[in-house]
Amino acid sequence: MNSFVSATSIEAHPQAAAEEVVRLTDVKRRFGTTPALDGISLTVKRGEILGIIGRSGAGKSTLIRCLNGLERADSGEIFIEGRDIIRLQEQELQPLRRRIGMIFQHFNLLSAKTVEENVALPLKIEGVSKNERLKRAHELLDLVGLADKAKAYPASLSGGQKQRVGIARALAARPALLLSDEATSALDPETTRSILALLKDINRKLGLTILLITHEMEVVRGIADRVAVIDAGRIVEEGQVWSVFANPRADITRSLLGGIRPQLPDHIARRLSKTGGSEAILSVDLAGPEAQGALFAELSAALPHSFRLVHGGIDHIQNQPVARFFIAVPSRDPALAGKVEQFLTARSARVEVLGYDTDHV
Hints:
Helix content is 32%, strand content 29%. The protein is of the alpha/beta class.
């Protein structure tokens, strides 16, 4: 008989925090002549939340199917808790799959079963006794805030409640790794925030490792420790979330961030030219203490000119200030924009001259 411990009483072992739960090395998967995964390498440490983000068709779904063993990679290594699953036979994969929980975009609940029966289903498949699996189901429903819905059926639940049931079911067998496949894409923004808060709380209470597949930068911003950006089957950028948001290097990352980072207003962007105009428009990206300091006052003191703040703002990601500003620099002195760029770059800012405003008087 399996022995169960209350979900809320589990704590992550401090020495386990640095262990790798997932390690992929040069993983490739083709469908015909099309590479779905083209040399993916990444690691996920125990207790970490990693967001993998990319557009539709980037390879996210193939990657998650390779991680849970539903797809076989053509080459490379996929280690889950130290075992290379590529080389395991199907019967050897079964116990390993139980170490991987899965939550889905469309919930995948069984409509003819109650909430508690849906949550307990993985344990029923394992052969756990009814009393033990219902005890575990009730513990998990309490954890996800649905203790009063145990006897309800999925049809009576809201989308957010259905996803909470899905999360509870994914945790039933005490997985080492939780895979989230676009789990909030079908939810409204308020419900999405509540689900992300729940996942973060579970991560903190259980020390659970979570890998999020998403196309939404807001999801990554709200919960992940690190982010990996996938494009055309390759990881094109990876790092701590605040660092990537502050200084996105790949074009696809900048595009994905376009909706949540300050952008130069369209009416100004449309009138920029490569030369001429009374002002040069610069974008300034920076993070850390400089993002909240008296940077522009120091700039004006060092280079006494009439600089103008056009647009921008400061956000806080992982307790780090992350700023993006657009400033206008008088262009009557052709060398001034270069001097401003040099001053700001010396203070760890990333600066780009976007063009010259032809209409500003």
